[in-house]
Amino acid sequence: MKKRIAAFLDNDSGFGQLMTKLWIIIGSNLLFMVFSLPVVTIGPALVALYHVHLKSMRGYPDQNPVIEFWYGFRNNFKQAAAVWIIFLLTAAIALADIRFLAGQNGLLMELMRYMVCFISGALFVTGCILLPVMAAFADNLRGLCRNAIYFAARNPARAILIAALNAVPLFLSYMDVQRLPLYGFIWVACGFSLTARIISSLLLKDFSRFLPPPDEDLTEY
Question: Lower Cβ count inside 10 Å, N or C end of the chain?
């Protein structure tokens, strides 16, 4: 009986693997919530979240999400914080432009509004790819942006899906006022982490082509 219980609770058993995945998902999500309390650190916290899931899905199932999250947060802080601040400023300018152009009459103003919406959408899609790229690769900001554009252009449908996964669930949760407390609990417990894990799974195959094998020392990862 003791052997059966020990085998059931072993990390290599189905139950043990399930508990390990839940620990990674829930633990990294709670860390993300804590590290995102100052708004300017949301970018580095997202990169750290992607770092945890990309590494766990590449052959490190027994990792400590606390250690890996801190590693990803610390190593990518400057670049990720700069990208996040630029994103917030760009979003504020784009919303102001769209609101201003929406109140203007004429074909030219309408075309300009569509152009602003298109450019903003393209930047948002690229930004959603840039964060996991920063978690997987070590490079300067220019090189990371180039890589993000490459992965987005390689599969535009996937890039749009990733952008939708980042925006649509949050928007729908916010719009459903009656169930907002329930959705809030899910997001705090595991929502952001689950989203990052799904996006990581979509990108992992392409990323793995440019990363060393899992059994090597991934100092940059």
Answer: N
Query: Are the beta carbons of 47 and 131 closer than 8 angstroms?
Result: yes
Which one, of 52, 81, 48, lies nearest residue 65 by Cα? 52
- The span from the CA of 137 to the CA of 189, in Å, is 28
Q: What is d(CA 196, CA 45) in angstroms, rounded to the nearest whole number?
A: 11
As given in the structure block, the two tokens for residue 180 are 């907002």
pTM for the predicted model, two decimal places: 0.88
Please give the pLDDT value at position 18: 77
Q: Which helix (H) or strand (E) holds 204?
A: helix 192-208
Cα separation, 163 vs 199, in Å, equals: 9
Q: What is the pLDDT of residues 165-212, one digit of tens each?
A: 999 999 999 898 889 999 999 999 999 999 999 999 999 999 988 887
Q: Which amino acid is at 138?
A: A
Q: What is the DSSP string of 88-103?
A: HHHHHHHHHHHHHHHT
57 vs 145: CA distance, rounded Å: 23
How much of the chain is in helix, strand and coil states, percent to nearest 5?
80, 0, 20
* CA-CA-CA-CA torsion sign (93, 169, 194, 163): negative
- Asked whether the CA dihedral 162, 174, 117, 80 is positive or negative, the reply is negative
